[in-house]
Amino acid sequence: MSLHQLFSILRARRAAAGLILLVTLALALAWVLVRPASYKASAPVLVDVKLDPVGGTALQGMVAPSYMATQIDIVKSDRVAERVLQMLPADQEPVKGLREPAQRKSAPQAWIAREIQKKLDVKPARESNIVNISWTGSTPAEAARVANAFAQAYLDVSLEIKTNPAKRYAEWFDDQVKASRDRLESAQSKLSAFQEQSGIVSADERGDYETARLNDLAVQLTAMRNRGATSAGAADNASPLVNNLRQDVARLEAKVSENSATMGSAHPVMQALNAQLNALRSRMSSESSRVGDAAQGAVRSTKSREQELEKAIETQKTKVLAMTKQRGQLSVLQREVDSAQKAYETVSASAAQARLQSLANQTNMVRIASAIEPTEKTGLSGMQTMMVAGIGGLLLALIGSLLLELRNRRVRSVEDLAMVTRLPILGTVPTAGAALTPLRLPGAPRRLALARSIA
User: Is-above-0.90 flag for pTM?
Assistant: First the structure.
């Protein structure tokens, strides 16, 4: 469709188009005159990212988009709306106006909370950690009051979300602390009873008297066996008197042998020497016998002492093994006490942390400022509304004219006739009083059009 055809249609349907435009403007004017006034108040809330002094956690850098979306959902939740309903006065708007229709509902409080939510608008600031909580009301005071109530309810609910799990954890940890304390006391009682029964205070074997005594007995037995290996002859050779007598006998025998070459056996000197030699030999024999008897007694005493030491070692070994077993039991009981002590300390620390978090009265949400009463109405002004209505009315008038034309299509120009007949137009008949003008077809040369008109 060309512009000429469009303008032909609008000129033919100008009455309908004008009516549509006037109706649109009239409706817009009526809306401007009768529409209720609305005011929008906003309360900004900061989602802080600093380190939590109680929980010890912090968000790194900018707040994640999912975290901000979660906070927006919390503001729009029914829990926050119900808290707002508790905070708002029942004798003031908007609760006052909604209370009567709410009585016809099955859950009046929930219905009022949902109605209040419909005028709530929550938007995060661009590239910022600030969430703007806005509410639209019929008066500036109402809008500011409800917006502040939503901001405060959001802070209260955020604090409950943070502290309620900590309170439940604190209760659970208190039960665990009690159970851990009972286990620790039971383990300590078992350890004390075993120490009292066995007489062992510590499981440390360093400097243990019984083990040292066993080692000392083993050393004594080894030394006794080394001394017992000394023979009686060795004891005899070790006697100074026997050695001296043996030397005297040897010298006297040499002298007897020397004198026997010149003297006979009946010589008085030889008889005296032989008598002296026999006396020395008899004395040496008796002395050797005495030393041997003493050595044999020493050997028997050594054997007896060895047997005593062996029995003492066996007895001490049995005692040391029993004490080693007791030390093992003591070590097991001591480890049970240490494990119970460690578990008790860990649970106590967690319980203290949970109790501290349950007592927190601050969150990482901070209300920057309270909502103030707006001075201007929300939405478009009357002039802006009429301008938008005028533009919309023109579009509706154009669309309405085209729709009417489609329902009753008529030939209003040469282009319409050529479109309908799909034949070339050779000429046109001007209206009465109009000057005779040749027909010009789109794209045809001037002289061709004139020739066909004359023909």
Answer: no
